[in-house]
């Protein structure tokens, strides 16, 4: 069976509403992915095992979403050389600003590519993973170019009530 290319992990199933937007993009591009809950705080040993085996399993990027004290992306990045793309999930009380700060403020030497809070961040993390993979996959790169072209056409076709 072909290796999984991208791992999508999240701290809780309550993150799914946000992280499903990453999965939708990966599915749309035909990227082989896996999605699972890996909680930094509630299952730290599993998190370490996931990170430690990611490279040998062939993962080329890990999209990690978490909210609140969002340690998952940073701790996974600390345990694997595979690029980690962090998605701040909107938290109940601080609307995800806490998640963003937790993920983006990594110490020098252990980077996490940090995306916007919420659905846009999840989708963009997946698009970024597609861009990474497409460096070595011309067919995937063409799909990305086509995606951008469709997006441009959709923006050009936008109308405003005042012009109708
Ligand atoms: C984090 O705590 C998760 O990523 C989630 O965003 C947040 C709340 O988790 P639940 O209490 O909803 O399971 O670890």
TrEMBL record:
The keyword Protein biosynthesis does not apply. It catalyses: 5-carboxyamino-1-(5-phospho-D-ribosyl)imidazole + H(+) = 5-amino-1-(5-phospho-D-ribosyl)imidazole-4-carboxylate. GO terms for molecular function: 5-(carboxyamino)imidazole ribonucleotide mutase activity. Keywords: Isomerase, Membrane, Purine biosynthesis, Transmembrane, Transmembrane helix. GO terms for biological process: 'de novo' IMP biosynthetic process. Pfam families: AIRC. Residues 4-155 form the PurE domain. The keyword Isomerase applies. Substrate binds at residues 12, 15, 42. This is N5-carboxyaminoimidazole ribonucleotide mutase. It comes from Brachymonas denitrificans DSM 15123. The gene is purE.
């Amino acid at each position: 069976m072909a290796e999984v290319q991208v791992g999508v992990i999240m701290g809780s199933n309550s993150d799914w509403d946000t992280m499903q937007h990453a999965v939708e993009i990966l599915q749309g591009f035909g990227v082989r992915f896996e999605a699972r809950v890996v909680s930094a705080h509630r299952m730290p040993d599993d998190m370490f095992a996931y990170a430690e085996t990611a490279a040998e399993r062939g993962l080329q990027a890990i999209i990690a979403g978490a909210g609140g004290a969002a340690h998952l992306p940073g701790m996974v990045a600390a345990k694997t050389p595979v690029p980690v793309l962090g998605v701040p999930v909107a938290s109940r009380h601080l609307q995800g600003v806490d998640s963003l700060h937790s993920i983006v403020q990594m110490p020098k030497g252990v980077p996490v590519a940090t995306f916007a809070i919420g659905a846009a961040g999840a989708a963009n993390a997946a698009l970024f993973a597609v861009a990474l993979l497409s460096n070595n996959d011309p067919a995937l790169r063409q799909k990305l170019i086509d995606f951008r072209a469709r997006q441009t056409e959709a923006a050009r076709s936008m109308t405003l009530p005042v012009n109708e």
